[in-house]
Amino acid sequence: MGYLGCHLSSAGGYAAMCKTAAAIGADTFQFFTRNPRGGKAKALDPADAAVLAGEMAAGRLGPVIAHAPYTINPCSQDPRVREFALNTMADDLSRLELLPGALYNFHPGSHVGQGEEAGIALIAETLNQVLRPEEHTPVLLETMAGKGSEVGGTFESLRAILDRVERSDRMGVCLDTCHVHDAGYDIVGSLDGVLEEFDRVIGLSRLKAIHLNDSKNPRGARKDRHEVIGGGEIGLQALVAVVRHPALYHLPMVLETPNELPGYAAEIALLRKEAKA
């Protein structure tokens, strides 16, 4: 199997996250670029960033995922909200140049009554402004559950964004198992079928990371409520199938389950054991 880890607090910095990952048996992790409910990032510490960059370069860690804050909405009706999203993403990507090999993931946003087509156009417009030619970090659209006016609840909507982005070479997708299940994709009964559809619509070459989560909801509920591994409607064996799948096993896979560190350590150990069985 590939790289397996979880979401970690970035409060102690990059070097601290590397130590925590090693302590719980993880060889990748995800972190928020700044307070997920706020806007301002901590001052950069190049020496701290160099520790994480070195771990990835040496192969002790796979690609880590930097997650944009939840507060950004690049397809809001409000120009000020869109400007905040643009400035935040541009700042994040500038800072991530210190972490070669990292990935940048974000929720596409909510069109809030404008309609999906308008939302898609605004998201692509933001990406075309933030993807600077001198920068390198891959940017990932996350698959969403489709609740409310969320954009990204179907593979087709993600493809529509990708088709409008000028720096297409910088773009990829992060597949969230809870989200696609809640959006109606049958990853329990037909994982191969879902991946074939993803490949037809988007292309598996675009798939760069997995959020590995169980779901509290039945398939198609469009609610987005994560559950611990094996404790929800997706179930352990279906998630082990994701970890083992030959089209996926090489990707960084990050747990976002409702857990503290001991729970994450137990889930990582369980998934590694079951994947080898």
TrEMBL record:
Q: Which domain of life is it from?
A: Bacteria
Q: Which Pfam families match?
A: AP_endonuc_2
State the EC number(s): 3.1.21.2
Catalytic reaction list:
Endonucleolytic cleavage to 5'-phosphooligonucleotide end-products
Please name the GO terms that the record assigns under molecular function: deoxyribonuclease IV (phage-T4-induced) activity; DNA binding; DNA-(apurinic or apyrimidinic site) endonuclease activity; phosphoric diester hydrolase activity; zinc ion binding
Is this entry keyworded Chaperone?
Answer: no
Give residue ranges for domain Xylose isomerase-like TIM barrel: 19-273
Biological process GO annotation list? base-excision repair
Give the signal peptide, or none: none
Q: What class of enzyme is it?
A: hydrolase
Question: How is its cofactor bound, per UniProt?
Answer: Binds 3 Zn(2+) ions.
Gene3D superfamilies, sorted? Divalent-metal-dependent TIM barrel enzymes (3.20.20.150)
So where does Zn(2+) 3 get bound?
A: 179, 224, 226
The answer, when asked if Ribosomal protein is one of the entry's keywords, is no
Query: Which InterPro entries does UniProt cross-reference here?
Result: AP_endonuc_2, AP_endonuc_F2_Zn_BS, Xyl_isomerase-like_sf, Xyl_isomerase-like_TIM-brl
- Cite the binding residues for Zn(2+) 1: 67, 107, 142
Q: Where does Zn(2+) 2 bind?
A: 142, 176, 211, 256
Q: Which SMART domains does the record associate with it?
A: AP2Ec (SM00518)
Q: Which cofactors are named for this entry?
A: Zn(2+)
- Keywords for this protein: DNA damage, DNA repair, Endonuclease, Hydrolase, Metal-binding, Nuclease, Zinc
Family, per the entry?
A: Belongs to the AP endonuclease 2 family.
PANTHER family the record matches: APURINIC-APYRIMIDINIC ENDONUCLEASE, ENDONUCLEASE IV ENDODEOXYRIBONUCLEASE IV
Annotated HAMAP family? Nfo
The record's function comment reads:
Endonuclease IV plays a role in DNA repair. It cleaves phosphodiester bonds at apurinic or apyrimidinic (AP) sites, generating a 3'-hydroxyl group and a 5'-terminal sugar phosphate.
Name this protein carries in UniProt: Probable endonuclease 4
Organism (species): Candidatus Avoscillospira stercoripullorum
Gene behind the chain: nfo
